[in-house]
Amino acid sequence: MTRIAVVDYGAGNLVSIGQALQAVGADVELVDRGESLDRFDGLVVPGVGAARPAMNRLRRRGLLEPVLGWLAADRPYLGICLGLQLLFEGSDEDGATTFGVLPGRTIKLVDAPRLPHIGWNQVELRRPHALFDGIPDGSNFYFVHSYAGEPDASAADAILATTTHGTAFTSAVARGPIAGVQFHPERSGRDGLRFLSNFVGSLRSPAFAGGASTSAVVAAVGAA
Amino acid sequence: MLCYRVIPCLDVANGRVVKGTRFVDLVDEGDPPELAERYAHEGADELVFLDITAAPEGRGTLLDIVERTARRAFIPLTVGGGVRRVEEMRDVLRAGADKVSLNTAAVSDPSLVSRCARRFGRQAVVVAIDAKRRPPDPAAPEAVTWQVFVKGGREATALDAVEWAARAAALGAGELLVTSIDRDGTRSGYDTDLLRAISRSVEVPVVASGGAATPADFVAAIRDGEADAVLAASMFHRRMFSIADVKAAMAAAGLPVRIDREAVA
After folding, report:
1. DSSP state letter for B248
2. Tens digits of per-residue pLDDT, A63-114?
């Protein structure tokens, strides 16, 4: 079974991400203190809210180093919401310095008619990617945020998808095995489960192509 | 483009879903996680649980319901009713809720809103406002105002609903859930004047509640009330209209909605 560590740094609802990953067949463990992550196949960093308290909590719990080590080793990472924003160099929300794995910053959504941006919005793919196998371009995912990570021009290759609220912002990034999404797949119904199933599947086999197996998992969850 | 959300609301008392008229005369409507899952499959964009008994001894039951629901319905869940302290909000989030709705406790201690927002982020904090139209002032019969009620609509406060809405948003609420007590359970449509007045006074999303009877009411809450999301209870529980019916009417009116291509009718 695919073993996934969900990093728990005391940031609210981890139940839904844990349940959703289990529903698509992963073996999930919450990791809330510094320890070796060697036994895991993938790392999920969830979270909502501001970057500075998150960085402080990660540091206090001894989690920052293992997470940075994981990223430096180029191992499979999925950042959700704040977990995506942390990949960049820093956040305008509170001036925090973050992981710095991707060149760019977390900035406030520009010209947004309402903030926070709460609800279902379309994820427009910039390029095909295994994480979106079986998910039509423009599908709706659930967002809850006021800030978003924006890659520098030098990291434009990392942009996987964009979404528009006021102006367009980056809603998914991927560079090698390191990925992040601004939306909440664990709260995005069937397409969200399909996305997570694709992530779990990609850990099992690099050649994972989605399709029938993904649909079967999602159908089984729907019928449960 | 951001979709307008359709949100079934499950009023929970003693572990069961109930529905009353103008907040009283409760009728049993089913098992909370079961109904929640059904709505998720039918294309609900989000779910709201309001624990209307909100008795401290019922807290364990509520957390259990939240946990069972989070395991079955992979859409956002807001829980309200009786949360008075930051630690209680933490427990509800840990059980699997995404947002917590504060009502009476926010009115008696507005600092609770800012403390919860600081701790969990403003996106997790919803302030619910139960409002009732004041009788017209003979000196200014044109001016409509609304009074805030607490304790499940039983107790009047001195607060003006529009002013309280702006203050709650400034304190850190990430969303406002606005219920018209006059319309609740009456199937006479949302109070669009109330919704518009509040919507124009804040930057955060406004969820319309109280009075839905037909899909046209949802369209009116958005077009005339300028709401960002629409909530209903008995209309869905009693299957008078489905979520798909409501979304079809909204789409026909040119409002962006999420059409779940695999939704169960």
Report:
1. H
2. 999 999 999 999 999 999 999 999 999 999 999 999 999 999 999 999 999 9
CB pairs under 8 A between A and B: 110
Q: Per the omega criterion (within 30 degrees of 0), is the bond before A116 cis?
A: yes
Residues from A in contact with B at Cβ < 8 Å: 12-16, 19-20, 23, 48-50, 113-122, 136, 140, 142, 144-146, 164-165, 184, 186-190, 192-193, 222, 224
Tell me which architecture the domain covering B5-252 has in CATH: Alpha-Beta Barrel (3.20)
Interface confidence, given as ipTM, is 0.91
Which residues in chain A touch residue B115, judged by CB atoms under 8 angstroms apart? none
Residue of A96, A92, A99 whose CA lies nearest to A43: A99
Query: The domain containing residue A205 runs over which residues?
Result: 3-223
Q: What is the pLDDT of residue B54?
A: 58
Which residues of A are identified as catalytic?
81, 184, 186
Domain total for chain A?
Answer: 1
* Closest listed residue to residue B191, CA positions, set B171, B168, B167, B161: B161
In this complex, do B76 and A140 lie within 8 Å of one another by their Cβ atoms? no
A177: domain CATH number is 3.40.50.880
* Closest CA in chain A for residue B86: A12
